[in-house]
TrEMBL record:
Residues 11-173 form the Pyruvate/ketoisovalerate oxidoreductase catalytic domain. GO terms for molecular function: oxidoreductase activity, acting on the aldehyde or oxo group of donors. Gene3D superfamilies: Pyruvate-ferredoxin oxidoreductase, PFOR, domain III (3.40.920.10). It holds the Pfam family POR. PANTHER family: 2-OXOGLUTARATE SYNTHASE SUBUNIT KORC. It comes from Mariniplasma anaerobium. This is 2-oxoglutarate ferredoxin oxidoreductase subunit gamma. Coiled coil: none annotated.
Length: 176
């Protein structure tokens, strides 16, 4: 088993956290993982993407040309990466911000991540709606592994955000 995942959007949309969660959860479940971040020159509002590879065997290179799964949080990221997907790959896109038709032959999953986050009153959990949708389609992880991974990243002052993040994930999964 090997999954090559690209996550892309603007800085501040939770692109890196989503990738870190996937990589961390894979390690917690006894799988191998590599997380490679790429930032634009700006921090917030600039481009950001990361590549995550998850495998049941050692990973010898963090670089891949085509992803099995693409999670795109904005239109520029869709334009940049939609051609770099395997033929039977999955594109999860933010239907709150991407209104144009996404090219086939991929499996498409539109997730209104901004709308879900706004319903919860926390715009910063939009990425968790996408994360929940992704987990629903790709059943790689046990629920307790995801819960422990969330707790790992949301500790200290961020611990109070755990319930709303879980709710955003559930709403994203339900949307699929």
């Amino acid at each position: 088993m090997i999954r090559r995942i690209r996550i892309a959007g603007f800085g501040g949309q939770g692109v890196m956290l989503t990738g870190q969660l996937l990589a961390y959860a894979a390690n917690e479940q006894g799988l191998y993982s590599v997380w490679v971040p790429t930032y634009g020159p700006e921090t917030r509002g600039g481009t950001a993407n990361c590549a995550v590879t998850i495998s049941d065997k050692p990973i010898y290179s963090p670089i891949f040309k085509k992803a099995d799964d693409l999670l795109v949080f904005n239109l520029p990221s869709l334009h940049k990466f939609q051609e770099l997907i395997t033929d039977d790959g999955n594109i999860f896109y933010n239907s709150s911000l991407i209104e144009e038709e996404v090219k086939q032959p991929f499996h498409l999953y539109g997730v209104p991540m901004n709308e879900i986050a706004n319903k919860l009153g926390k715009p910063q959990v939009a990425n968790m709606a996408m994360f929940g949708a992704y987990l629903k389609v790709n059943k790689i992880f046990k629920d307790e592994v995801i819960e422990d991974s969330l707790k790992h990243f949301l500790k200290g002052a961020k611990e109070a955000l755990l319930p709303v993040n879980k709710e955003a994930m559930a709403m994203g999964a339900k949307y699929i």
